[in-house]
Amino acid sequence: MTDLLLLPGDGIGPEVIAEVRKVAAVLAPDLALDERPFGGKSYDLHGEPLTAETLEAAKSAKAVLMGAVGGPKWTGVARDKRPEAGLLGLRAGMNVFANLRPALCFQPLADASSLKREVVEGLDFMIVRELTGGIYFGEPRFIETLPSGGKRAVDTQVYTTAEIERVARVAFELARGRRNKVHSAEKSNVMDSGLLWREVVTDLHKREYSDVQLEHILADNAAMQIVKNPKQFDVMVTDNLFGDILSDAAAQLTGSLGMLPSAALGEPGAPGLYEPIHGSAPDIAGKGVANPMAAILSFEMALRWSLSRSDLADRLFAAVDKALASGARTPDLGGALTTAQMGDAVVTALQA
Ligand code: ATP
Ligand code: MG
């Protein structure tokens, strides 16, 4: 059985995934790896960004680690054959409904944030975003022309008890392994779906997670607090739309896109999908200067959340911190190391 399926994808994807391979060979040589073309690469080879075989391989692996997909080469391709369609198909096919986006500040990079050092130093919180429901998927949705000649557009926010409960459960479980605190963000003051969200989270908390500290927060206030005092948060759970916005805001607290991993989880025991939050970065692809840390930290999350190897995850996290402390910097962090040299710095720290 495959432990980790690698889908390097396009652009800088293969460059950063190569560094994950290097790190894995040292940290976890017993791990069973597999690798398949995905996105534009798969389209070029098979006419499909995600083949049925690749989806099957993803569903039967313990975890999937993706690089990035897309690029200018495929912009003319039919919408349903584009690399990005392959990613949506993979998420849907794997039924990963909880998106974990850490906002964390590595000590050696505390000055790289646009915020003051004291606001971000030691920052470590996790946004859990509902990923497969809400207003991005709700029906009806349409744009119609009115008799007046003007237009009317409709999107619909839909959430069921089951959808809210399963993502809240992920947040509570996470919090138990962290600082035991969950903030649930919604707009229950103006939205019925927000009211249901609050009710379901409150009920689940009372029934199964009363040991965890729960606070409800309105999403607009959450946005303000993330910028003002982000260290008050441990785990924040929220819907698809608010999570999209809040997680991007939180990501910017800590500097480069090249440092940030993510995970998308489904039901307990089902494989998780891990990927750096950055894209295929066509502007730097092929130059060997991409920062591989986001991909390496995505691997760290896979070890922790899908492969039951938190011992190795801890070692890897410490090695990344150590490499940064030793001054290892790719150009996005103001340094001059190549992608491969940054990977080497992590390997060196692992071996020290
Ligand atoms: P997508 O639509 O796929 O998210 P995007 O254009 O929004 O792509 P990225 O591809 O992530 O965003 O690139 C945004 C900018 O950040 C680019 O200038 C890119 O070079 C830079 N960037 C992204 N990832 C990295 C990385 N790992 N290392 C260094 N720079 C990066
Ligand atoms: Mg983007």
TrEMBL record:
Binds 1 Mg(2+) or Mn(2+) ion per subunit. Keywords: Amino-acid biosynthesis, Branched-chain amino acid biosynthesis, Cytoplasm, Leucine biosynthesis, Magnesium, Manganese, Metal-binding, NAD, Oxidoreductase. SUPFAM superfamilies: Isocitrate/Isopropylmalate dehydrogenase-like. Pathway: Amino-acid biosynthesis; L-leucine biosynthesis; L-leucine from 3-methyl-2-oxobutanoate: step 3/4. The keyword Metal-binding applies. Pfam families: Iso_dh. NAD(+) binds at residues 71-84, 279-291. Its EC number is 1.1.1.85. InterPro entries: IsoCit/isopropylmalate_DH_CS (IPR019818), IsoPropMal-DH-like_dom (IPR024084), Isopropylmalate_DH (IPR004429). Residues 3-346 form the Isopropylmalate dehydrogenase-like domain. Belongs to the isocitrate and isopropylmalate dehydrogenases family. LeuB type 1 subfamily. Homodimer. Catalyzes the oxidation of 3-carboxy-2-hydroxy-4-methylpentanoate (3-isopropylmalate) to 3-carboxy-4-methyl-2-oxopentanoate. The product decarboxylates to 4-methyl-2 oxopentanoate. This is 3-isopropylmalate dehydrogenase. It comes from Phenylobacterium deserti. The gene is leuB.
